[in-house]
Amino acid sequence: MSLQPVFIGGQWRTSRYLSTFQANNPRTGEKLPDLFPVSTWEELAEALDYAQQVIPLLTALPPEARAEFLENMASKIEAKQEIITATAALETGLPQSPRFLEIELPRTTDQLRQTAAAVREGSWCLATIDTHRNIRSKYGPLGGVVIVIGPNNFPLAFNAVSGGDFAAALAAGNPVLAKAHPLHPKTSQLLAQAMAEALAESQLPPATVQFIYHFQPEDGSKAIAHPATAAVAFTGSRATGLAIKEAAEKAGKLAYLEMSSINPVFLLPGALQERASKIAEEFTASCLLGSGQFCTNPGLVVLSEGAGSKDFIQRAIDLFNNSSPGYLLSREIGLNLEKKIQALLQRGSQLLCGGHSLPEPGYRFAPTLLQVKAQAFHEQPTAFQQEMFGPASLLVVCPKAEDMLMIAASLEGNLTASLYAHTQGKDESLYQQLEPILRLKVGRLLNDKMPTGVAVSPAMMHGGPFPATGHPGFSSVGVPATILRFAARHGYDNVPQHRLPPELMDKNPTGRLWRFIDGAWTQASVNEK
């Protein structure tokens, strides 16, 4: 077993570590051979100091330098795609093909290239010019380091050293300190190697991006409070997210957090009468995708009582029972899921299928459905809104339309909500009552579609009200909006032309940049309007 190096100050080096850890193979439960370091506070502080030193150098470079780096990094990842995807499969138990090779790795490189294109084009900075008062503003770097902490379930597309948070923070002109997730450290290392190769070939300062594997929670809090740190980005559990939020607020730092979501699905009576079996098939595919380990997993289904609901429930039970259980990312996920299920049962839920871990080897859990009466949900709404991370969902059967409306009104903030309605308009009246309630509860509202997929589109909203995220106004997917999380608005009042950044000069620097000049969006230069 060999201790793996960290990437600090532009070079791979031996870590000054507190302890070491190993990843596991979820298919066998066995430890994988490499040792990875848990960094000391001194090592973290050194990385932050290095990053602070590059801020003026990075700010002075043209946007093209960042765009070229991101594009080159995407190409480096593609050149290593076989070993990256094979390692991701080994560390997560998820299939190399199609999950990683055909889906997640192309998504990762596409996201990097979309971000590069946005940096090069420049309109993301929202350049705004008032010629009458000679006041101008645009978005630019925060002036500090962004610490990016990636999740357990997307080792490529949301990785701290290759995912959307990483790309967006860098795009805005900030140095990044990336922390791997301990469930897939080797995959993260391979992505960091692609990053380091692209960085060495770029104009960017060597400490623009740095990479470590793990640190103690108390050292993470100290890193957030460090003078060099401007913001932290986190995707993961609610408990950890809230701890990060508290540390950031105490230190006066920005925190962009994606935490937990149950993504309610409302099945209206006409839709169930029309196509209960088809909806059950869509629901099963969504809920069991990736063994249910998605932040957009449909964890709560609210349906109207009747013949259609009975057909839906029976079909879903049959599909769940006949599915082939996939692997969980860790043993702890299965243990936590079992605890959540037991808590729901103690509060009056009924177990329809599953509810238990499956025999070794590996970490697997029986696909699980629970059901609870609408009245019980009304009485304890918070208790029934706990995320079950894994292949599980809770069904709530509503005798009356008023029950659906009450459940919708009691929901916490979520990433998504889905509404299934009759195709010929029989549910329109109920839809129009539910939609205004749900619209304010979620980031993304779906019609006749399960929530699992999150397209890398400029129009995508992957965020939502607390506690799904820390701020409802931003998205972690969808360039260029993602970049604005890690940007500050820079204003210039009565500043002469030769002292302005190119984006705010009278002449459009590229001829393609969209700017808001005297109340209108335009690509024209000021003197051409």
CATH architecture of the largest domain: 3-Layer(aba) Sandwich
Secondary structure: helix percent: 25-40%
As for the CATH topology of the largest domain, it is: Aldehyde Dehydrogenase, Chain A, domain 1
Shape assignment: globular
Category from helices, strands and their pairing: alpha/beta
Count of separate DSSP helical elements: 14
Rounded to an integer in angstroms, the radius of gyration calculated over CA atoms is 24 Å
- What is the name of the CATH class of the largest domain? Alpha Beta
Defining traits:
single chain; alpha/beta; Aldehyde Dehydrogenase, Chain A, domain 1; 5-stranded mixed beta sheet; 14 helices
What does this structure look like?
Helix content is 38%, strand content 19%. The protein has 529 residues and is α/β, with parallel strands linked by helices. The protein folds into two domains: 218 residues, Aldehyde Dehydrogenase, Chain A, domain 1 (3-Layer(aba) Sandwich); 183 residues, Aldehyde Dehydrogenase, Chain A, domain 2 (3-Layer(aba) Sandwich), CATH 3.40.309.10. The strands form five sheets. Strands 14-15-16-13-12-17-18 form a seven-stranded mixed beta sheet, with helices on both faces. Strands 19-6-5-20-21 form a five-stranded mixed beta sheet, with no helix packed on it. Helix 2 runs antiparallel to helix 4. The N and C termini lie far apart (66 Å).
SSE layout:
Blueprint: E1 6-8, E2 11-13, E3 17-21, E4 36-39, H1 41-60, H2 63-79, H3 81-92, H4 96-121, E5 128-130, E6 135-141, E7 145-149, H5 164-171, E8 176-179, H6 185-200, E9 209-212, H7 217-225, E10 229-235, H8 238-251, E11 254-258, E12 265-267, H9 269-288, E13 300-304, H10 307-321, H11 331-346, E14 350-353, E15 368-373, H12 374-379, E16 392-398, H13 401-410, E17 414-420, H14 428-439, E18 442-447, E19 487-493, E20 515-517, E21 520-522
Parallel strand pairs: 5-20, 7-8, 7-10, 8-9, 10-11, 12-13, 12-17, 13-16, 15-16, 17-18
Antiparallel strand pairs: 1-2, 3-4, 5-6, 6-19, 14-15, 20-21
